[in-house]
Amino acid sequence: MDKYPDQKRAVQYLYPPIEPFDQRMLDVGQGHRIYVEQSGNPKGIPVVVCHGGPGGGSSPAMRRYFDPEKYRVILFDQRGCGRSRPYASCESNTTWHLVADMEKIRVLLGIEQWIVFGGSWGATLALVYAQSHPEYVRNIILRGVFLMTQAELDWFYNGGAARFWPDTWARFVNPIPEDERGNLIEAYNKRLFSGNRSDEIRFGRAWSAWENALASIASNGASGEAPGEYARAFARLENHYFINRGFLDFDGQILANIGAISHIPGIIVQGRYDMICPPLAAWRLNELWPNADLVMVRDAGHALSEPGISKELVRAMDRIAEMEDE
Q1: Sequence-separated (6 or more) residues with CB below 8 Å from residue 152
Q2: Residue positions annotated with a catalytic role
Q3: What is the pLDDT of residues 212-258, one digit of tens each?
Q4: What is the structure's pLDDT at 8?
Q5: What is the pLDDT of residues 19-61, one digit of tens each?
Q6: How far apart are CA 258 and CA 306, in angstroms?
Q7: Percent of the chain's residues with pLDDT above 90
Q8: 3-class DSSP assignment, residue 19
Q9: Which domains does the chain have, with CATH numbers?
Q10: Tally of CA atoms within 13 A in the half-sphere of 91 that contains its CB
Q11: Quick check: 69 and 219 in contact, CB under 8 A?
């Protein structure tokens, strides 16, 4: 019998909700404490989930891509995100701090090797972590690939996606004076870190609305107004990472270092009509990564919740679990 008999909604591809069996705040240094949780089977296959953003935070829905009888699911909120503290802090908050935090989690939980699972910015972090610590990674599962290159930032913040969404783009650029629109990441940075909280919330909402409006293939270009503090935190963290080019050593670093993970099996799930992270990055990554399989999902955009994306991610995790049982 088909495990997913009704294929009309994304939720029908997902496992039932599972509750954490372990939740804690982990002191990672530099004044940061991050939220870490485990759910599923304590003796199952360990999988760590890297959430998107930067700045997004984890959610209970992220547990539902994994068979709770087969997987030990580790979620964490990256520095400044979600339940981690201090909230929205950009101090001592770089890609390399996050990679070190993941290692602290792995060691604390006594995990020898784990699967690394991430989408969008989470895919970036998953790849950088795996390239830094390949000996501790058994599989890599990616969705909506983002390689933190200048070309990708230009696509989203310098007019690429605007060609498809001119009305939505206009709402994003209109708050910025015309003479500053040549570098919108920098222009928003001035306002998101101005010290005027009401302005930071206003520009945080504008920044977040541009991204949220393009996440789903079913979008009409509109997005609801995000809660002020969340929008401010999300926008500040994302802008902090983007203005610093992800704190990578050079543009194109992830593809240049693909040899470090070439032996690790990978699955890349990519929406064909992803307007935030276009498929070119996923295709290029797959071309250079001999042990990765690329699943291009027709009629899907960027969001984790897209029905086709959900279906393929559940299928990928089930396939890995079945291979472990053989």
Answers
A1: 146, 277, 278, 281
A2: 120, 274, 302
A3: 999 999 998 877 778 889 999 999 999 999 999 999 999 999 999 99
A4: 40
A5: 999 999 999 999 999 999 999 999 999 999 999 999 999 999 9
A6: 28
A7: 91
A8: coil
A9: 6-150+248-325 (3.40.50.1820), 159-246 (no CATH)
A10: 9
A11: no
